[in-house]
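Intended use. Records like the one below are meant for learning the mapping from a protein sequence to its folded structure. Do not use them to infer anything beyond what is encoded.
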Amino acid sequence: MAIYQVFQCSVCRRIKNVLQDNIHAVPTQCTITKGCSGSLYVVGDTTMLQTTPPVAGLTNWYPRGQKPVVTPAVVPVPPLSLSTSTGGDLTLAVYAPAPASGATVNLQQLITENIAYADYLFTVTSLTPKNHYGNTVISGRDSNGRNLLFSTETIAAGLVFVLVNGVQVLPGASANQYVLTANTITFNYGLAAGAVVNVSVYSQPTTIPRTLTFVPNTSFSPSVGPGSWGNVQFIEEYDDSTGALKPNKWWLYTCTNIAEFATASDLLLVSITLGASPTPIDLTTARFLLSSQPHENVDRYLNFYVDPVVLSEGYALSSATASITEIYAADTAVVELYPPFQLISSSFITADVITQVATVPTDPTLTRLAGTKIIGPV
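Structure written out for the chain above:
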């Protein structure tokens, strides 16, 4: 049975297997990564020959007469701009029988600057429960002599955060949670003796509510936005199971003012409402439409959109780093649509004037996303 010695480099820390025999000398300098100045040392034996896994940005050492193996560095995909005009307008499509008087997108913006807070430290002992050093109730003075203080208003605003042994515990009625009252934390379970409880009480919320107001595309004017979608009132979609157009239309709304956000802030989509009613709509019936620069008519993307459901599951939106003229979405929120959206003559508020010469292949199923620009179909 062949036995391989496992060598590891002292510099690049990569591993290779060398057949063990009594004839050839074992290597001493790194023969794994080209240009590496490290030394090899034995870290074990194995009977299974394993190839050296590639590492991004490194070139493998290779014998004379062979070609090098280069693993390119992974370049992260930058976020995708939601702008559909040179002014940074956003376009929202909502699936409904008829258009509403307007749409409102409710967001939460993370505060980027430091927030003042008070920090408390308690070490649980095995004393009788209901004592501030007991195993169910935390109150009174902490290990540093600071008196635990927070009000019912602070609780209602969600400004009290509790960690047990470094792990966050959430308030609630479940067995592994706790209940907050003024100046007191009552756990629904007994904490182990020696457990460390950290309590942070913030002076203000960590997020700011924000709203974006969208107006319906019912007239073509600067107030609606003259970008890629500015002259389109609605788009339609084929049902891939029946081959017929779906009964409702995707009515378009445009937002022209996004300047109120802080720069370089993360945003969470909370809800979307239509008209004067505050009732949130189902996020699966809404889509953010896309286009590319220079945001002409031929730059519309009929086969891609940004899914609001993904934007509501995490802080997948971000504002620009300088003046707020764009909102960006993470590439994970981009969805490819097939069959693509359909634009028919009655969709247009004003006629589509093509200012660019473009040839679009007939097969719309093959598309790709390259950096911040969607290339499709190809």
